[in-house]
């Protein structure tokens, strides 16, 4: 029987995993600048954590979630997105306490799961990097989160990006707009797709997000949510735009954007790329928004929140299509060449000492001849070779060679054992003399 990975998943093998590490490392450094600290939540949660927060009519809940009953008859879901689990952890661990710094800033990285048709940049197991910030209902935090997302994508060398923003307003704004939208859509009810018919009276804003071409024609002339904002909601959105202008971050307003999850309100945004990875069409790589009220839904106190999620697979596709190389240098510092049967212990001690000094080291395990070992050192892009034979062991010496220049010098085995970093430093300082 031939075993294969499940459909919609992928193996991240050496040679590729270094790219992932580079993305994750860059994100961690940036988040640290903005004072976001990591949180790690379970890959599976109670079904209600997502059904209650994501919306009963959302595609995620109705079509895409991997959910099952475990042996204890508990309804379990593999997480389809990161925010709801972080909010659950925020509430359960009382991270809203008076002793906690506000805003509480955190980030996460890890796999998510959705049952959907696999395609480029859209897998059944995919990976997200995301941030969440709780406790502050201030437009400045909205802009900080968007600025951080843009800065992260730009740090990889991406240039042709588009930031699209919208607002879903406060509760009153949304209620007024909902009524106007239902009144507009009801005469078209018979023409709507099956999904949109179901959503018309449950969550009509989701009709705006329909992928059905006929639905899109109908909603093209629908009322604009920006015409139904309360003064407070309008002021919040105006400040967001003003601060984006202040930071000279270009943006476009897309008043039909609603996002695919029901918990959003006020500011929402998407960062898109028209990379040839997606046929030159604008495709979302990173998205998020404000979700005041979500903490209360999961049993916490009234707490505003905002965040974003970035799809790692999509980002890597864009970087590859744009010819952007990540810093995934996995070069070897030192290859230890042993000559003779009696050098086994000596080469092991040398490799161990080099690694203790903080450098990477490798040796031969296939009993190759010296020529084969040097060839392997070249194949592994070793910066140096350290050669020791039976005579060198007896003399307490080894030959250190820089592969790029071919320069070679005899060094003391005792010095290698005690401080190999200094041996390299001395070698570099005397080169060419």
Automatic annotation (TrEMBL):
Name of a matching Pfam family: tRNA-synt_His
The residue ranges of the Aminoacyl-transfer RNA synthetases class-II family profile domain are 20-319
Which residues does L-histidine bind? Answer: 81-83, 114, 128, 132, 259, 263-264
List the catalysed reactions.
tRNA(His) + L-histidine + ATP = L-histidyl-tRNA(His) + AMP + diphosphate + H(+)
Give an example GO cellular component term for this record.
cytoplasm
Q: Where in the cell is it found?
A: Cytoplasm
Signal peptide feature range? none
Q: Which GO annotations describe the biological process of this protein?
A: histidyl-tRNA aminoacylation
Q: Which InterPro entries match?
A: aa-tRNA-synth_II (IPR006195), aa-tRNA-synth_II/BPL/LPL (IPR045864), Anticodon-bd (IPR004154), Anticodon-bd_dom_sf (IPR036621), His-tRNA-ligase (IPR015807), HisRS-like_core (IPR041715), HisRS/HisZ (IPR004516), HisRS_anticodon (IPR033656)
Q: Which keywords are on file for this protein?
A: Aminoacyl-tRNA synthetase, ATP-binding, Cytoplasm, Ligase, Nucleotide-binding, Protein biosynthesis
Enzyme Commission code: 6.1.1.21
Please name the GO terms that the record assigns under molecular function.
Answer: ATP binding; catalytic activity, acting on a protein; histidine-tRNA ligase activity; transferase activity
Q: Which residues form a coiled coil?
A: none
Which residue spans traverse the membrane? Answer: none
Indicate where this protein is primarily found: cytoplasm
Q: What class of enzyme is it?
A: ligase
Asked if the record carries the keyword ATP-binding, the reply is: yes
Q: How does it assemble?
A: Homodimer.
Which family, according to UniProt?
Belongs to the class-II aminoacyl-tRNA synthetase family.
Record-linked PANTHER family: HISTIDINE--TRNA LIGASE, MITOCHONDRIAL-RELATED, HISTIDYL-TRNA SYNTHETASE
Annotated protein name in UniProt: Histidine--tRNA ligase
């Amino acid at each position: 029987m031939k075993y294969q990975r499940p459909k919609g998943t992928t193996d991240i093998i050496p040679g590729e995993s270094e790219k992932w590490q580079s993305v994750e490392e860059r994100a961690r450094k940036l988040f640290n600048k903005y004072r976001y600290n990591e949180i790690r939540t379970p890959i599976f949660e109670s079904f209600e954590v997502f059904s209650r927060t994501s919306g009963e009519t959302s595609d995620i809940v109705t079509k895409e979630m991997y959910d099952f009953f475990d042996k204890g008859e508990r309804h379990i879901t593999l997480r389809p997105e990161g925010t709801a689990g972080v909010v659950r952890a925020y509430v359960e661990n009382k991270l809203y306490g008076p002793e906690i710094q506000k805003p509480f800033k955190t980030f996460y990285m890890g796999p998510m799961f959705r049952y959907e048709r696999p395609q480029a940049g859209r897998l059944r197991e995919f990976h997200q990097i995301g941030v969440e910030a709780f406790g502050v209902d201030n437009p400045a935090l909205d802009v900080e989160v968007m600025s951080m997302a843009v800065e992260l994508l730009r740090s990889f060398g991406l240039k042709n990006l588009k930031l699209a923003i919208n607002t879903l307003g406060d509760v009153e704004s949304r209620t007024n707009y909902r009524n106007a939208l239902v009144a507009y859509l009801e005469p078209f009810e018979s023409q709507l797709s099956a999904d949109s018919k179901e959503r018309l009276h449950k969550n009509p804003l989701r009709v705006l997000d329909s992928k059905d071409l006929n639905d899109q024609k109908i909603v093209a002339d629908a009322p604009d949510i920006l015409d139904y904002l309360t003064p407070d909601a309008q002021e919040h959105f105006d400040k967001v735009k003003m601060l984006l202008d202040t930071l000279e971050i270009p943006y476009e307003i897309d008043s039909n954007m609603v996002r695919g999850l029901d918990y959003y309100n006020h500011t929402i945004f998407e960062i898109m790329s028209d990379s040839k990875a997606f046929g030159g069409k604008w495709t979302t790589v990173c998205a998020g928004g404000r979700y005041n009220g979500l903490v209360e839904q999961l049993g916490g106190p009234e707490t505003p929140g905002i965040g974003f999620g970035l799809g790692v697979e999509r980002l890597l596709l864009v970087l590859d299509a744009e010819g952007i190389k990540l810093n995934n240098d996995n070069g070897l510092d030192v290859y230890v060449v042993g000559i003779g049967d009696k050098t086994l212990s000596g080469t092991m001690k040398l490799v161990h000492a080099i690694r203790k000094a903080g450098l990477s080291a490798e040796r031969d395990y296939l009993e190759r001849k010296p020529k084969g070992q040097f060839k392997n050192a070249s194949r592994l892009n070793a910066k140096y070779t350290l050669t020791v034979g039976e005579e060198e062991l007896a003399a307490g010496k080894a030959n250190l060679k820089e592969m790029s220049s071919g320069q070679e010098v005899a060094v003391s085995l005792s010095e290698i054992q005690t401080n190999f970093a200094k041996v390299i430093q001395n070698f570099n300082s005397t080169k060419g003399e």
